[in-house]
Amino acid sequence: GAAVRFQDLGGISEFKEALLENVALPLTKPEIFTTFGIKPPRGVLLWGPPGTGKSRLARAAADAAGANLLVVRGPELIGPVVGESEAALRGVFKEAVRTRPCVVMIDEIDSIAPARQGGDGVTGGGGKGGGDEDAMSNRVVTTLLSIMDGVSAENLDLHRVVVVATTNRPEAIDRALRRPGRFDKEIEVGVPTPASRREIFAIKLRDVAHELTDADVDELSKGCHGFVGADVGALVNQAAYQALRRRVKEKEAWWSDACKTRTVTRADFEFAKKRVRPSALREVQIEVPKVSWDDVGGNHEVKQLLKEAVEWTEKYPEAMARLGAKPPKGVLLYGPPGCSKTMLARAVASESGRNFLSVKGPELYSKWVGDSEKAVRTLFRRAKTSAPSVIFIDEIDGLVQTRSDGGGGDGGVNVHDRVLTQLLTEMDGVDAAGSKVAVIAATNMPHLIDPALLRPGRFDRLLYIPLPSDPVDRTEILRVTTKKMPLAPDVDLDALGAQLAGYTGADIAALCREAGMAALEEDIDITHIHARHFATSATRTPP
User: Fold this and answer.
1) Is 363 left (phi over 0), alpha (psi -120 to 50) or beta?
2) φ, ψ for residue 529 (rounded to 5)?
3) Which end of the chain, N or C, is less surrounded by CB atoms within 10 Å?
4) Would you say residue 126 lies in a domain?
5) Same domain for 314 and 376?
6) pTM as predicted
7) Residue 168 · residue 50 · CB < 8 Å
8) Are residues 477 and 458 in the same domain?
9) pLDDT band at residue 156, thresholds of 50, 70 and 90?
10) Are residues 67 and 163 in the same domain?
């Protein structure tokens, strides 16, 4: 493809220096390293989610060094004939030596150098059919290692040749490749920060006729949680298409002057934002729930404490920094079933504009050793990718019960203990990453949860959500639930609220649903729900 230069890329200042030092310098001035008696870097591994610009960074580094670039796409190297893949790999490096200074870019290195079975790498459940494939990938890994160590049969001298590999699965790469002398430098190319995204927007908007002010671009950058460079490009494209569609609707002739002066507006971008889903989040069900505080009746004190824990970090960061106040890392909502714990978690995510990752504790379990911990790791990684976000773990008691005293069936450590240890590790890492991730969990059996999770620094805010014992709260829940129901004048919600002692929020919602059904059973053309229908539904739905 065409050459890519660093100035064509936005939000890369933190990677640029490392790439110039580890790629451009060994290619242009290798003697500097010799002077200090150190070996020039051999390889650089760029890793991070898809679409963050890893391949483009590698191309820009080659351009900055004025070096030749050889691109190897991992999957394309794998051939069906024994020895073919190794020969192809050796051929690439021979060409690199011939045309040096040269950057060899291996895209998706995890496909040609996966962790080997047994011995060095991570053992995987290869099953019976994976033998040949494993043997082949082992041979390819061995060939790559011998070339990079300069001990291959051809005895290639890799002076002024640097290998840049990219992957979005660093844990799947053979460990032997990641030791010093091979891929000396690992650079994480993560999801850009709002400031980096701002730079990417500025570059992508260069060639687009638009009406966005600087303030608009700032807001867009902040609002596109989890968007990587490729997503920003897709968003700008989609907005331009929307401007085009508008023009067609207005039946302007394509060649008219009015048409030529048409520009992309803020509204086009808002439309496009609903259509473009950030690639880092596509594999996980993430929602920004549309639940407001007004949709949850009662619980005023709990709402206030939740706002402090989650919303204040977004709304008043300066004030919190000024007083050195840190928000709680985790909030545990506990109380009887049906008291709107999940609704409260959704409302806090929605009101603070955060992405919402919801999972039920037992869903994270797997019968395969190591899979449950991996599911916990993946959940937190996705939350960091889509930050600012809220992780909501429902029924957490099913996931992290009080630890057993050994005898877990598989070497004394049962799956509960391993999952709990993993969750403790992830909770301790939430703050360190500076990632705006809030963890909210819900349970109706708090006594089953391991005390290690409830100490300060983990779930350090415990909020009890009781039954709505106050008639005023019950009336408020009734008002919220019947907001969209046509009630007849004879329905007195205050009196009804006073009668519903012992009902939970979920029970009250069920009561209102049943009242609607009772009205329809009486007359399918009825226009209002009457007090008699609520009386009928109260007999059908006891608390």
Assistant:
1) alpha
2) -100, 130
3) N
4) no
5) yes
6) 0.66
7) yes
8) no
9) low
10) yes
